[in-house]
Specification:
single chain; 7 helices; 7 strands; Glutaredoxin; five-stranded mixed beta sheet; two-stranded antiparallel ribbon; alpha/beta
């Protein structure tokens, strides 16, 4: 009788066990480009990039705190403020691939968060080019080009495809960002 009850309970609960769960479903819907967990800058918090990007268009940029282009943090923050309510996710990734990131992550964080008021998501230092590049940037290089210096910027559609890139010298213009946002509607 006991095994009959166990079999009946299992029979009743089995369909519930087979239902997809939120995180698994989100992973399936997330582009392979963003199926990584990365550490938030100057934090112990690990961020799931699928959750951070949430199927939205992304402006991805590799950063360094001691670079001649560091002032672009202010420009990137302005883009973030202007387009965050329209769905654009600005994602900064600290990198020392060009030997210009502070060895002290706290000091690097202070430069972007305190000196430039950055509120967009910043990730801890990873390699962005070469054999040791983080897989996110390996895929970026496969689709487009690896960063040739700090503050390379990539516009990525919700499907995880790089649609344009900008060198350290240029920011994506409003027309490019608005065209990208239109693809997400």
């Amino acid at each position: 009788m006991k095994s009959l009850k166990q079999a009946l309970v299992l029979w009743l609960l089995l369909p519930l066990l087979l239902l997809p769960t939120g995180p698994l479903q989100a992973e399936e819907d997330c582009p392979a480009l963003f199926r990584y967990t990365m550490k938030q800058l100057h934090s112990s918090q690990m961020l799931n990039l699928c959750e951070v990007t949430a199927g939205q268009p992304v402006l991805l940029v590799n950063t360094a705190s001691h670079c001649g282009f560091t002032d672009q943090f202010a420009d990137l923050e302005a883009i973030h403020q202007k387009y965050k309510d329209s769905g654009l996710v600005v994602l900064g990734v600290s990198s020392d691939s060009f030997d210009q990131e502070d060895e002290d992550e706290g000091k690097a964080a202070e430069i972007c968060f305190k000196n430039f008021g950055v509120t967009f998501t910043m990730l801890s230092t990873v390699a962005v080019r070469g054999e040791n590049a983080h897989p996110l940037f390996q895929e970026i290089a496969r689709q487009d080009t690896a960063p040739k210096w700090n503050f390379y910027k990539y516009l990525i559609d919700p499907a995880g495809k790089v649609v344009s890139s900008n060198s350290s010298f240029t920011l994506p213009d409003d027309d490019d960002i608005e065209a990208l946002l239109a693809t997400a509607r």
